[in-house]
Amino acid sequence: MDNREKKATAALVVAGGRGERLGGPVAKQYQELAGIPVLRHALLAFCHHPHIAAVAAVIRDEDRELYAAAAQGLEVMPPITGGDSRQRSVLNGLRGLSGLNPDRVLIHDGARPFVSGMMIDNVLAALDEHDGAIAAVPVVDSLKRGTDTLIVDEVARDDLWLAQTPQGFAYAAILSAHRDAEAKAQYSHTDDASIARAAGLDVAMVAGAPENLKITTAGDLARADAAHQARLFDVRVGQGFDVHRFEPGEKVRLCGIDIPHSAQLAGHSDADVALHAVTDAILGAIGAGDIGRHFPPGQAQWRDTDSAHFVAFAVDRVHALGGRLAHLDLTIICELPKITPHHQAMASRLAEIAGLDQSRVSIKATTTERLGFTGRNEGIAAQATATVRLPI
Questions:
Q1: CA 173 vs CA 37, 75, 168, 199, 237: distances in Å
Q2: Residue 1 has what pLDDT?
Q3: 294 and 344 share a domain?
Q4: Per residue in 243-294, pLDDT tens?
Q5: Is the separation of the CB atoms in 278 and 329 below 8 Å?
Q6: Based on the domain organization, do 224 and 272 belong to the same domain?
């Protein structure tokens, strides 16, 4: 077993800032990047990392509704209220993890949406030998010191690095270091690594990445969105197929829409055969197995679950890989009920669940000319194709 799996690691995503330099109606971490909030990109990276046991965010109390929307459907701890500075917000977050008492904690800026699994792996590996570790990139540009518009000095760039996050530490050690800095009113530290070193901890540097930028201005957000789009060259296509039989009932649920009928579909969840096929198609496009692998039908927790949850999970897996869902094509196969009267409502609801414009959702219906189990009105079949764009 990987040594990292033996140690409980928590991720603390700091998102308590106001982001005033960016402007806009909401703080920068809640503005959209590639169709979802900046903060959700960061949360997804940690939620889907195999070595992260728990994820918590530090936020402003007044942002709770925005945070709930950004974190919808993700397995995260209740948000922790931040302080009047980043340093105090981190301390509040570390205190909020005391009930979990992890061995290690990764501290990450919620405004850095492009943290990768490799960066997380690099930091965790370094923690096997050091008290702390941070992601960083070497300075490659010439550095100047200046006043107004004049250069007054040259700054050697040798051995200079740009610190990034995540920054990882032994949990007890960094909590103690933060408490000590608070007790001594030491508020001039630039980051958590600075606090750790002041407490005598050794902190390693590991490879970060230039694209792991912190979004601060409107220009940063625009460049990040353009960079994200430019990386999506790997086009994948996945297929899904599902069948559910009829049982006594009064309605059939397809694409989240309840359609009156003389029977209902049998299933462990809500038996939405259409959304089950869509889920498998999305998971197939990213090589993530099928719906049964992630939501075993024998588990009581999934009984009567709204299948929109399954689709949202699959879409989140795409986002966690830095990708985007581009298109869904769904065919429903049955004699009855008639699909055409409900086509628009179904397409609208599927687009909403998948986070797509409705022009990127196609729903068709057909019959088997009264052949086979669908022709005998014994059930409904659905097949779906999902197109996904992933970064290379």
A1: 32, 26, 11, 9, 47
A2: 36
A3: yes
A4: 999 999 999 999 999 999 999 999 999 999 999 999 999 999 999 999 999 9
A5: no
A6: no
